[in-house]
Design brief:
The complex is a heterodimer of chains A (240) and B (404). By secondary structure, chain A is of the alpha/beta class. Chain A has six helices and ten strands; from the N terminus they run E-E-E-H-E-E-H-E-H-H-H-E-H-E-E-E. The two termini of chain B are 29 Å apart. The chains are: A alpha/beta (240), B alpha+beta (404).
């Protein structure tokens, strides 16, 4: 552990009721993620890793168990309070990019700041800075559909950073990209972690991405099968 | 913050332009109906009430037929006979009786010709009553002399009907030449102000209508109770009718004091307005259901977008606000789009009425009616958008994000 626990999951269950059948997606997950860590959640398709990520990112609530963010029990928060926390403290990067098609690149990056009440000038300045830092300064007035997959994912990263969150949560960020573009996206995330000390949580089924991480969480059939930290000197391929 | 949401809402509407416009059209039609009919009925009401206000309190109006069936009376061509008029004259307390006679005739003046309302006036016996009790006053020139081919014109005749018309000039009505000897002051009703008044004997001569009248006005002598004399007139008329029952069947009469007339007209117009509003509202309601349908479709289509907005920090109230703004804008534009042609149509009908004064209706376009139209359509828009907006806001971010 490199710092105080930012996120803590206590016996988290996620159960879906499909008619008379109960579908257990997560089965009693216990997990701690320290501030400033680069975490990779690995697991095969259908293992529950995306559900776990959604719960960590406060997009979903557990059926049973508790999620703590900075020692605060998140089950006590109202929907609006959760939205406020997501907007302020968590940045999301999705496999499908999830940009708003009718807004320009610049507006897409500005939108999380709108919900935090950032004044327009400041919003614009920050969005332009973030877009130029991901190499898309020339594309600010383009619509998402006019851009390549890699460019769209870089916009998504810029959007995730707009409110300067503590955590970046990425769900299969390279899943829709070719390997070269995927590599660049991962480098961007690593930079954020190394230079800006962001906590980065990446979900993937690609073990190669684990090379970048300081904490590897393996999940299978809704259960945590392993949770290793780099400091434990577990044998896996070191990055570089 | 609200400005930002408004920008987002407008952008969303623009993205679905065709659907937005079609939805707006639904509201346009409803508001168009409400606005045109409401302004016309409001105008009609104020025209008639203005006219009645000019009438003195010691005046009663006698109409054949039962007042509860006034439309049948008016449409059925029931008239007071000469005998009826004599019965009224003989009733104690009646100072004078003025048969209310008028007919649309073509008037020619300096090469132009227009249809005007020609009204017969008992200049010889009742000029005083026209001036003091009916409120007719000379603005320019003088009153016609009984028995002479002279006419007096309403205040709008020299401005609207025959612009530039002057006194001491000649006009031709039904092939006969008349001298225009006077212009009246306005009485507040465009119908009255557009009429041409002529001595009763001449009127009877040129129209051929020598006996009876569709209605009559009686002035009650001072010292008598207007209500009591009105009752007596009614009783005498009905008694007379009973005597003649063998030939004409049963008849009834309505004798209205000016106060009763104002009340009656107010009531009838009120009912007309309620009916007009109810029909128009049904049309707007259908438009509102259109908005609701569009917004529900929009929620479904934009489920993922709602998920994204929530993921990046939009509160439920923010989502509701954005959707409400979209539906409110649809309502407001629909209201504006319906109001302009609606009030335009009302004005067109008014203009048509000026050419054919028998159909004269004034279109009342007040800031109140405009504000009401806009608020009403905006309200319908917001109300129709509320439920779709609420269902959009209720979506869990994770479910919305998964939606394809």
């Amino acid at each position: 552990m490199t710092g105080r626990p930012l996120i803590k999951l206590e016996n988290v269950w996620k159960i879906y009721q499909l008619g008379k059948v109960e579908l257990e997606i997560l089965k009693g997950i216990n997990l701690e993620i320290a501030l400033g860590n680069f975490v990779v959640i690995l697991g095969p398709s259908g293992s529950g890793k995306s559900t776990l990520l959604h719960i960590i990112g406060l997009l979903d609530t557990p059926t049973k168990g508790k999620v703590f963010l900075e020692d605060q029990d998140t089950s006590r928060f109202s929907e609006d309070e959760l939205a406020q926390i997501r907007g302020k403290k968590i940045g999301f990067v999705f496999q499908q990019f999830n940009l708003l098609a009718n807004l320009t690149t610049l507006e897409n990056v500005m939108i999380p700041m709108v919900f935090q009440g950032v004044p327009e000038n400041e919003r614009k300045e920050k969005a332009e800075f973030l877009l130029s830092s991901v190499g898309l300064k020339e594309r600010i007035l383009h619509r998402p559909f006019e851009l390549s997959g890699g460019e769209q994912q870089r916009i998504a990263i810029a959007r995730a950073l707009s409110n300067n969150p503590e955590v970046i949560i990425a769900d299969e960020p390279t899943g829709n990209l070719d390997s070269t573009t995927g590599q660049k996206i991962m480098e961007t995330l690593i930079n954020l972690h190394e230079k800006e000390q962001k906590t980065v949580i990446v979900v993937t089924h690609d073990p190669a991405i684990a090379d970048y991480s300081e904490q590897i969480v393996n999940i299978k059939d809704g259960q945590l099968v392993s949770n290793h930290l780099v400091s434990e000197k577990v044998l896996w391929a070191k990055r570089k | 913050m609200l400005t930002e949401y408004l920008k987002i809402a407008i952008k969303n509407l623009r993205t679905r332009q065709l659907r937005s416009w079609l939805t707006i059209l639904g509201i346009v039609i409803g508001v168009f109906l409400i606005m045109s009919l409401l302004s016309l009925s409001q105008g009609l009401k104020s025209t008639v009430l203005n006219q009645l206000r000019a009438v003195g309190t010691d005046i009663v109006m006698i109409i054949p037929g039962n007042i509860s069936d006034i439309m049948t009376t008016m449409m059925g061509g029931m008239e007071l006979t000469e005998e009826d008029l004599n019965t009224i004259r003989k009733t104690p307390g009646v100072e004078a009786v003025l048969p209310n006679v008028y007919k649309a005739e073509i008037m020619r003046y300096q090469g132009g010709s227009k249809t005007v309302i020609l009204a017969g006036m008992d200049i010889r016996n009742a000029l005083d009553i026209y001036q003091k009790d009916i409120g007719m006053k000379i603005a320019e020139g003088r009153w016609p002399v009984a028995g002479r081919k002279e006419v007096v014109a309403g205040s709008l005749v020299p401005t609207d009907v025959f612009p530039g018309l002057k006194i001491n000039t000649q006009t031709t009505i039904k092939g006969r030449q008349f001298e225009i000897v006077g212009i009246l002051k306005s009485r507040g009703s465009k119908q009255d102000d557009s009429m041409i008044g002529v001595d009763m004997n001449i009127y009877q001569e040129i129209t051929g209508e020598r006996k009876g009248a569709p209605q009559a006005i009686a002035k009650i002598a001072s010292g008598y109770s207007v209500d009591q004399v009105a009752k007596n007139i009614k009783a005498n008329l009905e008694e007379g009718a009973k005597r003649r029952a063998g030939q004409q069947g049963e008849s009834s009469y309505s004798v209205l004091t000016s106060e009763a007339m104002s009340g009656l007209v107010g009531n009838i117009m009120g009912i007309i307005q309620v009916v007009v509003f109810a029909f128009g509202s049904i049309a707007v309601l259908v438009g509102g259901i259109g908005i609701m349908n569009t917004m529900y479709t929009s929620v479904r289509e934009r489920t993922k977008e709602i998920g994204i907005l929530k993921a990046v920090g939009a509160k439920n109230s923010t989502i509701v606000m954005i959707f409400l703004m979209e539906s409110g804008i649809i309502g407001l534009i629909g209201g504006l789009g319906g109001m302009i042609p609606g009030l335009g149509l009302a004005k067109l009908i008014q203009a048509f009425g000026q050419v054919h004064p028998i159909l004269y209706i004034e279109a009342s376009i007040t800031p109140g009616i405009i504000l009401f139209g806009l608020l009403f359509s905006f309200g319908v828009g917001c109300l129709s958008g509320y439920f779709p907006a609420r269902s959009a806001a209720k979506l869990k971010p994770v479910d919305a994000l998964r939606y394809e």
